[in-house]
Amino acid sequence: MLLSSIRTSMLCGCRSASKRFQQSSRSPQLRQWLVKRGQSTITAEAETSSTLSAASVPNAATNRIVGRWLLGCSGLVVGAVVLGGVTRLTESGLSMVDWHLVREMKPPQSQAEWEAEFSKYQQFPEFKIMNHDMTLPEFKFIFYMEWGHRMWGRLVGLAYILPTVYFWRKGYFTRSMKGKVLGLCGFVFFQGLLGWYMVKSGLEEKPESHDVPRVSQYRLSAHLGSALLLYCASLWTGLTMMLPAHKIAETTRLMQLRRFAKGTGGLVFLTALSGAFVAGLDAGLVYNSFPKMGERWIPDDLLAFSPTLKNFFENPTTVQFDHRILAISSLTAITGLYLFSRRMVLPRRAKVAISLLAAMAYGQVALGISTLLLYVPTPLAATHQSGSVALLSLAIWVLAELRKMPK
């Protein structure tokens, strides 16, 4: 009896609770609360899924990271260019007479290893003609200069390749960016091969030549030109990823300024490239006067070689004359760009970039004239070579500031 009464009371209690829940669920307040709760849950899940999907693709934060990496790589390329210029000025580039990707990373350690390395150097024209009285300590200096340049080149390669692999796996690159970084990495590898190809030209025996042993000015200019292209591409890509484009009205004057800036940048690049021919032919030592070349505005031996085209690449007088003309033309173009920009309303960053470009141009010309008049002292000449890269950097910055808004 007792158990049946307990069972009956429990069943009645459950039925009454069920009826009360159904009645309460019919109330409009509870129904609205349940609907709102469901909507908020769906919104939160959608926001979470969108956040996760945004984190898995390139965004503004990852672009800034990649941009900083490319700017760092371009800085390393500048170091390689400067170090290469100093190596050329100290006549150290032919001290290492073979090339090995890994084995040469460790320089000679013992006295026997140094003597063996010096013995190899003694078999080539530079020692026989120019440095036949060189001592082992003097050889160590030029060896370490070239070794440092080569090791810096390997550092540049690692700085491009290793982060590329990491960022690729992280998904930081867009489809177009993948093509760009692959091109940059390939260009680094090509640059290393081109450097050894240049050095080989200075190690060859040339019985018919009475000139001092030196690398081919053609290969030197190709080596420098490819390094500058690598630098420009890295710097441009890094700046465009770091600096947002300005919202400037596309007026006729702005388009003219943009074209003017592009032409000026090309002229600055060409002037820097002509410096490789000056260095390769030691053309800075033929006429150490300014503004005239000797007693004349146009020297007598300007077109002494035949055919005429050969003078522009192999005649030291013509090469120096061309470099002067290009430098003065670059200065004139940059001055015109500065004056033209003063008459326009431009963003502050663009005005600063153009002003710095103009100031650097006058400083670079002053450095070049001083280097010429003082018979090319190594510290001043190295500063002048570095100044050409600084001027090119500012020209690229100006172009980045004046670029069009992406559609």
From TrEMBL:
<dbReference type="InterPro" id="IPR003780">
    <property type="entry name" value="COX15/CtaA_fam"/>
</dbReference>
<dbReference type="InterPro" id="IPR023754">
    <property type="entry name" value="HemeA_Synthase_type2"/>
</dbReference>
<feature type="transmembrane region" description="Helical">
    <location>
        <begin position="69"/>
        <end position="89"/>
    </location>
</feature>
<feature type="transmembrane region" description="Helical">
    <location>
        <begin position="352"/>
        <end position="376"/>
    </location>
</feature>
<keyword id="KW-0472">Membrane</keyword>
<dbReference type="GO" id="GO:0006784">
    <property type="term" value="P:heme A biosynthetic process"/>
</dbReference>
<keyword id="KW-0350">Heme biosynthesis</keyword>
<keyword id="KW-0812">Transmembrane</keyword>
<feature type="transmembrane region" description="Helical">
    <location>
        <begin position="151"/>
        <end position="169"/>
    </location>
</feature>
<keyword id="KW-0560">Oxidoreductase</keyword>
<feature type="transmembrane region" description="Helical">
    <location>
        <begin position="181"/>
        <end position="199"/>
    </location>
</feature>
<dbReference type="InterPro" id="IPR009003">
    <property type="entry name" value="Peptidase_S1_PA"/>
</dbReference>
<dbReference type="GO" id="GO:0016653">
    <property type="term" value="F:oxidoreductase activity, acting on NAD(P)H, heme protein as acceptor"/>
</dbReference>
<keyword id="KW-0408">Iron</keyword>
<comment type="pathway">
    <text>Porphyrin-containing compound metabolism; heme A biosynthesis; heme A from heme O: step 1/1.</text>
</comment>
<feature type="transmembrane region" description="Helical">
    <location>
        <begin position="323"/>
        <end position="340"/>
    </location>
</feature>
<feature type="transmembrane region" description="Helical">
    <location>
        <begin position="382"/>
        <end position="400"/>
    </location>
</feature>
<dbReference type="Pfam" id="PF02628">
    <property type="entry name" value="COX15-CtaA"/>
</dbReference>
<dbReference type="GO" id="GO:0005743">
    <property type="term" value="C:mitochondrial inner membrane"/>
</dbReference>
<dbReference type="GO" id="GO:0046872">
    <property type="term" value="F:metal ion binding"/>
</dbReference>
<keyword id="KW-0479">Metal-binding</keyword>
<keyword id="KW-1133">Transmembrane helix</keyword>
<feature type="transmembrane region" description="Helical">
    <location>
        <begin position="224"/>
        <end position="245"/>
    </location>
</feature>
<dbReference type="GO" id="GO:0120547">
    <property type="term" value="F:heme A synthase activity"/>
</dbReference>
<feature type="transmembrane region" description="Helical">
    <location>
        <begin position="266"/>
        <end position="287"/>
    </location>
</feature>
<protein>
    <submittedName>
        <fullName>Cytochrome c oxidase assembly homolog 15 (yeast)</fullName>
    </submittedName>
</protein>
